[in-house]
Amino acid sequence: MAKDKVIQSKNVIEINDLTFSYKADPGKKAVDNINLVIPKGQFVVIMGPSGAGKSTLANSLNGLIPGFLKGKYIGEVLINGKKVKGRQVSEMAREIGLVFQDFEAQLFSTNVNLELAFGPENFQIEREEIVRRINHVLKTVKLEGFEKRQPATLSGGQKQRLAIGSVLATYPDIICMDEPTTDLDPIGKLGIFNIAKELHESSEFTLLIVEHETEEALNADRLIIMGGGKILKDGKPELILSDVQFTDSVGIMSLQIPSYFKRLLNISKDKLPLDPKSGVSMFLDKKIIFNEDKYKEIIKSEDERKASYGKLILTVNNLVHIYPNGNKAVDDISFDIREREFMAILGHNGSGKTTLVKHFNSLLSPTEGNVKVYGNNTREHSIFEIGKDIGYVFQNPDHQIFADTVFEEVAFSPKIRGIKDEEVKVRVAEALKAVDLEGYEEEDPFSLSKGERQRVAVASILSARPKIIILDEPTTGLDYSEQKKMMELIKQLNMAGHTIIMITHTMWVVSEYAHRVAVIRDGRVIMDDRTRIVFAEEEKLKKSFLRTPHIVSLSNQVGKTVLSVGEMLACTGGNK
Amino acid sequence: MDMFLYVDNNSGLHRLDPRTKLIIMLMSFTVAVMFMNIIILALLMLLVIIYGGIGRVLGNLKRIRMVLIMITLFSLAIWTIARDSSDKVFIFSLEGLFYGIMIALKTNTMIIAGMVFLSSTKIEEISEGLVKFKIPYRGAFAFATAIRLVPMIVATSYTIIQAQKSRGLDLDSGNLLQKIKKYLPLMIPTIISVIRSTNIFSMALESKGFGYSSKRTNYLFLILKWKDYFMLGFGILLLTAAILLKTNTEVFGDFVSQFPWSDFSGKLQWSL
Amino acid sequence: MKEVFTMWSKTKMVVLVALSAGLYAAVLIPFKGFVLIPGITEIRPASALPILLGLLFGPAGAWGAAIGNLIGDFFGSLGIGSFFGFIGNFMFAYVPYKLWTNLGMLKEDEKEPDLKSGKKIAMFVLVSLIGSAACALVIAWGLEVLGMVPFGALGSIITINNFIPSVVLGIPIGIILFPRVKKWDLLWTDIMDSEDTLSGAGISKVGGLLMLVSVLFGLIGGFLAAFGVGQALFYSGFGAGGEVGSMGVIIVAGIGTAGLIISSFLQTYNKAE
């Protein structure tokens, strides 16, 4: 692509002393004195915690900053030698294509072909050429056969691929994607990574991706870590990611394999293995012993935990759900949940897992079969009644927050259930304490960060004092430290006696926190057992596009299944 | 709820240019508005139904059958009682009944004509047709985008209803004012989640060259073919005939005197 | 009036038209079943939206209300009435933001529609009433001209049906919505170049006053004329019978409608002038 373009400089991106503060927050430098040069054809991954300045950097590349998002702008950004500031975004769009996280908000057309044609039409490309480009791009983003489909009917992964395609169709020679995979399920993520890889291999593209997935960053030519608006590290991904102390300190997820070997053997970072395969060789080379007795201790404590579960509180019998359009979303599922269990439900989007859990609090009624919660058949009790025992935290906190103070938001559920004001106060205080938001009562929930809003949502469920809590993707869209905080919170709730049912795509979260895992595929439960037992079957999981965390893969190859770096250290002697 | 009205068959009607279909719809509106005559309106409805039958889109009428039935019943009931007339038996009048039939035919014909148009024309064709009619591109773009957003917003609001119900919101209880207030936890998150996307939406648009130039090319290729000219000619012929009939008081008067029960245009003498 | 056209050059305003219209239609459509006057109007909690959209997004809110209503009509009531529905709903959002600045009741420094004072809430109620009435006037007049629905019945039903949700839902939603919209830089007065935003001075004030008077004259005068030919308000408007298409109603309500439109063009006095 874009072969006819005259290369004006070998460096396609050149940023000199860029500092920017948003109008709304003039005191804070969103990016702070950035200097960056990116040569043509490079594949760069940018990582960092929320608020590091990644999106600000991305948006300054095509002139959205300072043209669209206003603020104080110092320094300069040059794309293909052109100074960005002062040019229209639409003009820069010919040089650099930008893809955003929210795929719903970047599709405008009523079918796939028109979506791809949109950019070229704006640039007054001739119709015949547009047709050629559409055919070309459809292949690149693997959407052949979808030409006439309405974007609304595509899956999340397909939508994001279409968004990428619609940018590619304008034939820019740089593409920057800002967290393109955050809202996607594992299959969707894989699709994007594959496209990125292929684009890179065509070698004319310069590719920038802002990402959270540490494991995927290994495929890049270059990794940039940002924090507090500055570039903290810039170099080969292997070198940066093997520096476990550094990644721990900036709050991005450290790779588990180097993390483990670093703590076990304390060897220098350039010798550390990065992935399970090289981890296995080192494990064997160093003749590390896997201590069976330690492992048995872990299993024993797990057995004890299982024995301590309370009574049967939720039973699902031969549940079938068929939507009015004939789609059989749940197909004969049966299982039981005991009090104080911590269950994770895995499966890609459309597998039926959300349909399944919506039966638990009577949001949906079974087509066939029954669900009983504390002995009450959900067919015979309304959501209002069942909802007293079972709370449901929806995926997006913004789908439920409506009040103008945190207190009112959290008080909504007990108030609507007719609880007296005094008692409501007690419950709100208790719920806010549980989510570590004491003192936030009078804050405006909309002005909080995503992680905090997610915790307000959890608190607003807790205030009804449900015994069972369902959480739908509680960590999606959060950065690593926020994810960790959210999961520790859920763990606390579980230890305090709540039964937890959690839908998630995040495998390390399941591995480290869930007691039990059910994998759903095409409306059926294909695996349902202790996490350790399910994660031992890597091949079977792979068929559902689920990949176990690196440390689990390593352990599966050298001994028994362990679920965290901590467990692995305990079983192999070192715990420094 | 399936929000898309378009029925995907490749019929002769579907292959007509959207401009043709739009003009034909407007012409049928014009005739429906012009006459207050049961026979003429019934003929018009028949024509509209045949036209929709060619496109095999009449199945879509099932989706609005409640509206059509309600309109019919309402018109019949209200006008049978309400129409001031000399033949009143108790509170009912035959003339009122016929008047009701006339109003029902008029309203339903327009609605069916609208439905046939929407069932046989894609959104992008409508918007491209509007552009060809010199509606500014940005207006047509906003219109088409809004239609595309509707199902998305409905889906979001559905999720929000479920989320709030899970927290104990019970929409069925309380008096009217309390019930209206219960829409707050539903409407606020819906509005905010939609409006929140404005900035990303605009950024994504500009990032794809929206506004690069006042001119743009078109991937959709609209051209009037002989079928379009034929249909348009046919439509103009009928419309002209209707206008002639309406304006030629002698002929029209003759026609009306044959079926005096069917016509109400004479009774619309403006009284000042 | 100028801003109604110049706004199309701003991408954000175009997007706000689409989002406002989508939002309005999405809230309208589920209530299509609850028909008040079949084919013409129905119960509309969605009516809380146009006033808010107008006050926050200005002309984009007005276009959005107009287009959104048209899309709502696609689901069961697209007809000749949709033409008047388009203009009526445009006015439903347009009149409030015009009057907000141009009636001269709010000082320059208290023009942000944050509803934080009693005065602003009173103003909100006033512009909601006039906006609701303007919408009712245009639609009821149009259908009276076509001889389809009596003015007295339709005018009164639409006014009340618009006004109640606008106040009951509109005020609490407005209080919560305003600070977010401001924070996200989406107030129309922040998006548009300042020469296209309103100033309530000079002829604009006259225009605002004329707009208020026209709407009230058209609607109330229309009702009185309608009583004269035997119409009545609300549902009794159907029961009472009377002539539909009466010249008196058409002329009086028509003068009001004309005044409404003419006054829009008078309110052109913008900040830069």
Written overview of the protein:
With 576 residues, chain A is α/β, with parallel strands linked by helices. Chain A is 38% helix and 22% strand. Chain A contains 24 helices and 20 strands. Chain A starts with 10 loop residues before the first strand and ends in a 5-residue tail after the last helix. The model of chain A is unreliable at 1-9 (pLDDT under 50). Chain B folds into 2 domains: 18-122 and 223-239, no CATH class; 128-207, no CATH class. Chain B contains 12 helices and no strands. Chain B has helices at residues 12-15, 18-34, 38-54, 65-82, 94-120, 123-132, 137-166, 176-181, 184-196, 198-207, 226-247, 249-258. In chain B, α3 runs parallel beside α5 (94-120), α4 packs antiparallel against α5 and α6 runs antiparallel to α7 (137-166). Residues 267-272 of chain B have low confidence and may be disordered. Chain C has 273 residues and is mainly α. Chain C has one domain (3-266). Helices cover 68% and strands 2% of the residues of chain C. Chain C has 12 helices and 2 strands. Chain C has a two-stranded antiparallel sheet. Chain C starts with a helix and ends in a 7-residue tail after the last helix. The model of chain C has no long low-confidence stretch (mean pLDDT 83). Classes of the chains: A alpha/beta (576), B mainly alpha (272), C mainly alpha (273). Chains B and C meet through α2, α4, α5, α7 and α8 of B and α2, α4, α7, α8 and α12 of C.
Q: What's the arrangement of strands in the largest beta sheet of chain C? A: 1-2
Biggest chain contact: B-C, 72 and 74 residues
Q: Give the helix level of chain C as a range of percent.
A: 55-70%
Largest sheet of chain C: 2 strands, antiparallel
Radius of gyration of chain C: 18 Å
Backbone CA Rg of chain B: 24 Å
How many structural units, i.e. domains of chain C? Answer: 1
Assembly state of the chains shown: heterotrimer
Number of helices of chain C: 12
Low-confidence stretches of chain B: 267-272
| Average residue pLDDT of chain B | 85
> Which descriptor suits the 3D outline of chain B?
flat
What structural class should be given to the helix and strand makeup of chain C? mainly alpha
CA(first)-CA(last) distance of chain B: 49 Å
- Helix coverage percent of residues of chain B? 55-70%
Strand proportion of chain B, as a percent range, falls in: under 5%
Could you tell me how far the N terminus lies from the C terminus of chain C, measured between alpha carbons in angstroms? 14 Å
The portion of residues forming beta strands of chain C comes to: under 5%
Strand and helix order of chain C: HHEEHHHHHHHHHH
